[in-house]
Structures are given as structure tokens and as C-alpha cells.
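Internal tracking record. Fields below are filled automatically when a chain is submitted to the structure queue. Please do not edit lines marked as system-generated. If the sequence contains nonstandard residues, flag them in the REMARKS field before resubmitting.
Queue: standard
Priority: normal
Entity type: single polypeptide chain
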Amino acid sequence: MSQVKFLNLKLKNPTVLASGILGLTASSMKRVVEFGGAGAVTTKSFNIEWRKGHKNPSILPFRHGLLNAVGLSNPGIDEMVKEIRLFRRQCDAPIFASVFGRTIDEFAEVTRLTVEAEPDLIEVNISCPNVHSEFGQPFGNSCEDTAKITEIVKKNAGDIPVSIKLGPHGPGVARLARVCEEHGADAITAINTVGPGMLIDIEVRKPILSNKTGGVSGPAILPIAVKSVYEVYKAVNIPIIGTGGVTVPEDAVQMILAGATLIGIGTGVYYQGIDVFKKIEQGVREYLDRHGFKSIEEIRGGAHE
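SYSTEM-GENERATED OUTPUT FOLLOWS
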């Protein structure tokens, strides 16, 4: 009942480990599938070279979510290709490779090298809000840059489908999604963390994060994510990975009603534990049963009717 078709893939359920959480090693991602119950996993975003990221404190829980300025730390393409290959040998669940670049040309190169690992999908992170001090404004704030990156990634991805990860900022998520679709994207991931935001220690009167600002995630951004998925669903005909603030089954149902095909879960692991995927999948099934639906497809986009 919870099985779902996404592009050329069949998932046992619609939940996906979102990029940034437990996505650095094959063993941790395998654990998310086998013990957590995820239908698919997404690696942490990586680029060509090893990247240290920002100094601690880089993650800050607050009343309504998390503030994150990890800064895209990763071991680089060579190590991540090894981990993706190892995961594919050990686990049957689909794996999505999340990539980023400091330049448009680097997006092309990291995609070309990632193809060697044969992931099931390449997710293109053009919207991270916590590295603006180094990279400038996210590429995803520009329709022109979004178009160029979508084209160049698709050219280098070969037969592997591509999802562009968008934030709610810039010229509008629906407009950006249309640009992605027009330039060859196979899917949209919406949304990334929101912000950047800041919290201040009132005793020392300074920002708490070492980077001063970070992306906001967790329950606080759920309404923004649901609205973004709703707008994207109206704007394009390609599937959506709805991500942002999902921690309980009711959140996932909202995403599906807004139009999401898959449900990305990241900080939900922090709030509910690694088995959050099982909890949400069970809750979605119970919702379908309670309302007399036989499949998720029957309610997808239902909020638009």
C-alpha cells in the first residue's frame, strides 16, 4: 500500500533520507534503510575536493528547529564514489547522490565523476544558504544560473536522472522549477534549509554559531516547505521530493496532498530517532486506511482539487 513509483524506480515506501543527515558512509546509510525503514537514501552533499566546513559550534537546536552552519563539509568525490559503490553492493534501496559546485563548471565535473558510482539519481544542491560568505548568493537565486547548471548537469549525467534542489528564496520556487523542467530536469527537490538565520547569546551578546549565520531546518520550516511543494506541483509536470520540517506522519500527508511523490526526512531523525521513517510510513498507511484510500497516488495533489 505504501509502495511508490518515482521516475524509473520503485520504492518500498515514499520516505527518503534527506541530504546532510547520516549520509557520509555506506554503513550509516545502510542502517537508515535496514533499521530506520527508509525507502531510499541521499548522500551528504559533496564536491570535487575534501572540504572541512565551518568551525564548531555549527549546529544549534532551538525551540522550533535547528540552525545549521556545517558548511558543506565532505570528504570529496573520490571517497564518496567509494561509499556509494559500497552501499549499492550491500543494499537494494535506491541511493541519491547529492552534489554541489563552487562554480558552474565544477557542477559539470562533479557530475561526470559521480556517474562512475552509478547512483540511482543525482540531486543537485544549488540552494544551500549557509555558505554565502564563501560562495556568494546561492546559484538557485538566479534563473539564468539555474538554467545553466541544469543543462550542464543533465549533459554529464548520461542516463542517470537529475533532481534540482531548490530553496524558497530568489525569484520564486515555482518559477525556478519551471526553468529546471524546461532545461531537462527529471525531478525537483523542494526545499533546502531556509535562511540564513541567526541566534544570539544574550549573556555574551554575540552570535552563537561560529559562522554567525546558518540554515534553518526542522518543524519551523514545514509551512514554507508545504507551500513550496504546492506551488511547484502547479508549475511543473515532473515529480517532487518534498523536504523540510517533516517529523510526524501528519507532516508527510500534508506534503503528499500538496503534490510530493517522495518525502525527504532529515532533522526528523534528530526529533524522532532513526526509525522515524518507519513511524511516518506506518502513519501514512493508517491515514489511507482510515479514509478509505488504497494507495498514495489517490491522495497525491489532493489539496489542489
